[in-house]
Amino acid sequence: DTGVSQDPRHKITKRGQNVTFRCDPISEHNRLYWYRQTLGQGPEFLTYFQNEAQLEKSRLLSDRFSAERPKGSFSTLEIQRTEQGDSAMYLCASSLYRARQETQYFGPGTRLLVL
Amino acid sequence: AQSVAQPEDQVNVAEGNPLTVKCTYSVSGNPYLFWYVQYPNRGLQFLLKYITGDNLVKGSYGFEAEFNKSQTSFHLKKPSALVSDSALYFCAVRDVAFNAGNMLTFGGGTRLMVKP
Fold first, then answer.
1. What single DSSP character describes residue A98?
2. Model confidence pLDDT, tens digit, residues A62-109
3. DSSP E strands: which ranges in A1-115?
4. Measured between CB atoms, does A90 come within 8 Å of chain B?
5. 3-state class (DSSP) for residue B61
6. Is the separation of the CB atoms in B92 and B26 below 8 Å?
7. How many Å apart are CA A43 and CA A92, to the nearest integer?
8. Mean pLDDT score, A13-17
9. Contact residues on chain A for B41, CB-CB shorter than 8 A
10. B29 shares contact with chain A (CB less than 8 Å)
11. Chain A residues touching residue B36 (CB < 8 angstroms)
């Protein structure tokens, strides 16, 4: 049973650089979510996809953030011109959505540190 | 708007004693409620959920939670705590009202410390 995987697990970058994270969901899960978690806080929703369509974006998702799920399988989250405030754990979750019911299963996260 | 409150930053309990981690929620429609556990430097692991039906929900590792609509609560419980239960616990809600969106809203988390 393969769970949600994320790559890389850790990323250190300098302010102003671009970074990209990848998420591979559980096979056959049609929904994929991105959340951000800062130290001592609960995860906050960023965006989600149903198959390849991006259906919802949080106001937290500034113009510097972009997410894709081109073939309805893996997804990427890119942050352009990183800022120190972007330092956080980025969590991906996937689910099989049926009849308005779903359980989101989370990956191990990518921890980003912007220097 | 939906929200979740976990009023205790930390809960301390002795091994073998019962534990309760509190959660209250606010939604405009009906709630779907979830508990997740997070170990250090790890993602969130699903424990249990309430969708409909029996107010007492049983989940993984001996945990259970009771949905109380009148008190808008969904407290996590376990009859006998283990040291290995020590972790960060998150309550989450999804409002199933028509225009509420599909995201989970999480509480701030409660750190459970079980002492031998």
1. B
2. 999 999 999 889 999 999 999 999 999 999 999 998 866 789 999 999
3. 5-7, 10-13, 19-24, 31-37, 44-50, 53-57, 65-68, 75-79, 88-95, 105-106, 110-114
4. no
5. helix
6. no
7. 10
8. 97
9. 111
10. no
11. 106
